[in-house]
């Protein structure tokens, strides 16, 4: 069954080294962007800290990532070896939590690392997904 987007779900026990988040879906036919965020809770006001936000931007062919702590966005990172998403095609994103960083894999290929800006990994307990995609599996 397809999950409804925008999606917000709980990560049982929070993040820890060795834990992996799997997001599988299909990009919409005419996508502009979609985002996957790992946050510390669901609060909107004040906004929950964002440990990592991944945003696929189709017009720029960028896959940017950033974090937001105490309402302040950090420095955005955007360098990637290639843009892995294709309109109307399925994809598989894996976010592997390691001690110093998240490792991001798309369709089995490591795309980049993102070093933790939030030290308390167990506080990262929510996943949010929005944008131009259909979710087929979360794990």
From TrEMBL:
Domain spans labelled Galectin = 7-139
InterPro entries from the xrefs?
ConA-like_dom_sf (IPR013320), Galectin-like (IPR044156), Galectin_CRD (IPR001079)
Q: What's a Gene Ontology MF term here? A: carbohydrate binding
Alphabetical keyword list: Lectin
Top-level lineage group: Eukaryota
> What's the stated role of this polypeptide?
Does not bind lactose, and may not bind carbohydrates.
Q: What is this protein called?
A: Galectin
Tell me the organism's taxonomic lineage: Eukaryota, Metazoa, Chordata, Craniata, Vertebrata
């Amino acid at each position: 069954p397809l999950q409804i987007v925008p999606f917000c779900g709980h990560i049982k026990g929070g993040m820890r080294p060795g834990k992996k988040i799997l997001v599988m879906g299909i990009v919409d036919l005419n996508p502009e962007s979609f985002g996957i965020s790992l946050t510390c809770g669901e609060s909107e006001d004040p906004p929950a800290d964002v440990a990592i936000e991944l945003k696929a931007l189709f017009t720029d062919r960028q896959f940017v990532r950033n974090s937001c702590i105490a309402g302040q966005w950090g420095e955005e990172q955007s360098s990637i070896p290639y843009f892995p998403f294709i309109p109307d095609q399925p994809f598989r994103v894996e976010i592997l939590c390691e001690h110093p960083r998240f490792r991001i894999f798309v369709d089995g290929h490591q795309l980049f690392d993102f070093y933790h800006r939030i030290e308390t990994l167990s506080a990262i307990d929510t996943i949010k997904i929005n944008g131009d995609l259909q979710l087929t599996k979360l794990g």
